[in-house]
Amino acid sequence: MIDGFTAEDEKLSGLLIQMGVPRNVSKALVYMKGRLETTSVEIEKNANLRQPEVSIAMRILKEHSWIMKRDIKKEGKGRPVHGYRLAKPFNEIVKELEEEQRRKISDMQNVLGQIQNLVL
């Protein structure tokens, strides 16, 4: 796979954003889906995100247990480098997102039903 986002990646990222996935998380997730491992610098450059956006995205992805992180040894001083990879197949992550949205829809339908019972 080439570096950077393809038109298909942009479309997929946009659809995830429409589902409620934050932009930075969506772009990082889509960028990582076709790679065995990547670094935050590569995500930043190729997904067109700023460093703080990548850091926040990695934290959110880690909280969902969707990525794994490993320390990469590097020479000299400076910030440590971390390698990131998806902890599960991309389609499983999409299924989890779908289930989360279905729960939200169900909860909202329940609330709307309660509202209707109170006002009718």
The main β sheet shows up as: 3 strands, antiparallel
Roughly how much helix do the residues carry, as a percent range?
Answer: 55-70%
Content of β-strand = 5-15%
**Oligomer state of the chains in this structure:** single chain
Count of DSSP H/I helices: 5
**CATH topology type of the domain at 7-88:** Arc Repressor Mutant, subunit A
Write down how many β-strands occur, each being a DSSP E stretch of 2 or more residues: 3
> What is the strand arrangement across the widest sheet?
1-3-2
Radius of gyration: 18 Å
The CATH class name of the domain at 7-88 reads: Mainly Alpha
The sequence of SSEs as H and E is HHEHHEEH
Structural class: mainly alpha
Q: What this model shows, in words?
A:
The longest helix has 30 residues, at 90-119. 61% of the residues lie in helices and 12% in strands. The model has no long low-confidence stretch (mean pLDDT 92). The chain has a domain at 7-88: Orthogonal Bundle (Arc Repressor Mutant, subunit A). A 3-stranded antiparallel beta sheet has the order 1-3-2. It has 5 helices and 3 strands; from the N terminus they run ααβααββα. By secondary structure, it is mostly helical. The termini are far apart. Strand 2 and strand 3 (81-86) form a beta hairpin. The protein has helices spanning 7-18, 23-33, 40-46, 51-63, 90-119; strands at 38-39, 67-72, 81-86.
